[in-house]
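Field: sequence (string)
Field: structure_tokens (string)

Example rows 1 and 2, in order.
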Amino acid sequence: MNEFDLDRIGGHAGLDALLDEVLACGELALSHQGRGAGTHAEKKPDMSPVTEADRAVEARLRTHLMMRYPRAGFFGEESGEQDGADGLRFIVDPIDGTRAFIRGLSTWSILLGLEAEGEPVLGVALMPARRELFVGVKGRGAHLNGRPLHVSKIERLEDSLLCHGGLSQFTAGGCLPILPKLASATYTQRGFADFENYRQLLLGHADAVVDPDIKAYDVAPAAVLVREAGGRFSSFTGEETIHGGSALASNGLVHDELVALCGGA
């Protein structure tokens, strides 16, 4: 597997600057939460919530990225897309898990991904409430607060722990028929939602994640992190993409079985 050339973002110094900015955004989000941002949430046209923290974090990240990488593209959940000219595109979900943020749960995160020529090559996920920073770079491994991450070694789906998102995702994605199949095909299931699902997979506590009805900004970092931790990431049909509208992530050993179950959904 070819490594991503960090010189395209300024080398290790450039990566460190990105991580510093994400950490600063984490403090910004926590300060908004402490001032009650979650109590003033609005609903977007798709009925998903948005707070002043979502907008403030994305605005800060977008400003930093466009100043430092003016030729790169940008895709943010709140502010949309901007074309680039150098094959790089940053993808941002400023508060992944806004519902959790609103309710004071610790599962929300700040997600920053980078595509090079359409391929996810860098993934950063910060969980500010837990002081956990996940970083993955193509060909360079995945780490949590500097410690290497490795997926589990469970070999059979029937022995696996499966994570999933909110049940409304299955209804919105037209995937309700796969729920009983997944329930009978796996040993146990847990609905953590948000990046927490992928966190459990990366820590080796879970063996697979089923994530229907998603956008690229929901999973751009997870795709890199999971692959660099030794696992696999694809759409329900098995295509290795973050743009398929659905996501399957696993330790790799149970992935083909998952695709067989979910591919027709």
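Row 2 begins here:
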Amino acid sequence: MIRVVDPGLDVATLTRLQSYQSEVDGSGTYPMQVEAAARMYGARARNDRSPFREVRTLLRGMCSGVERCMYCEDAPANEVEHVRPKSLYPELAFHWENFLFACGPCNGPKGNRFKLFVPPGTTSEYEAARVSGAPVVAPPAGDSLLLDPRVDDPLEFFSLDLVGTFLFVERHPLGSRERRRAEYTLELLGLNRRDVLVRARRTAFHHLRNALRSYVVDRDNKAAPSELAAHAETVRNTSHATVWAEMKRQHTKIGKLNELFAAAPEALAWP
């Protein structure tokens, strides 16, 4: 999971989204807004229909690798995901800033689960998801535990073990809000629990290391600029961009990586 950059949605698309949101907001009481958000989103978030055609196009460009999920970075991103679930926050159902592009294996289990620190600024936790049959009432004001890669830099909250387990490791002390946010995000999305993700991160590490080695050999053998650029493009298109970010961040602590980046310091500028 890595920070994603929002280049900005065009004004016409934003205006259409805002008009849809205004319909939800004006539909009546909170339970009526929840119903309207579900009904209207289901009808209007069609792949081939503006404005969601434009929404999906821009979200694809924001993904790491080749359109990889903004949560796990492994599977193809094909679902517009609401960071704050629309069943809890109908007022954000059509907000551009609340959209991510995710895969089914991440979006499905996440569902409507959403923990908050309540009251804001505290470490007291509240599960906002409603159980079946519970009254449809708005969640209290609170701070999200789930990391939002559009807002948060996940690598400020956890690091990736590149020399053994390829698991994410929390960076902050026990009891801190930062630690709980990291723990909750990793658990909710199964980023350490799904063996396929761990194996894929390990594979990405070896692939990226070999790509860097090949670049050094080709550069030293005076390969054409287009061939050298292809190595950088390979790095950019490799799934699990977090692995590359951590290779750059941790290279001075890992002997073989330090040697590689010392031989090709320009690679530290590759995104």
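free_text_note (row 2): The CA atoms of residues 55 and 253 lie 40 Å apart.
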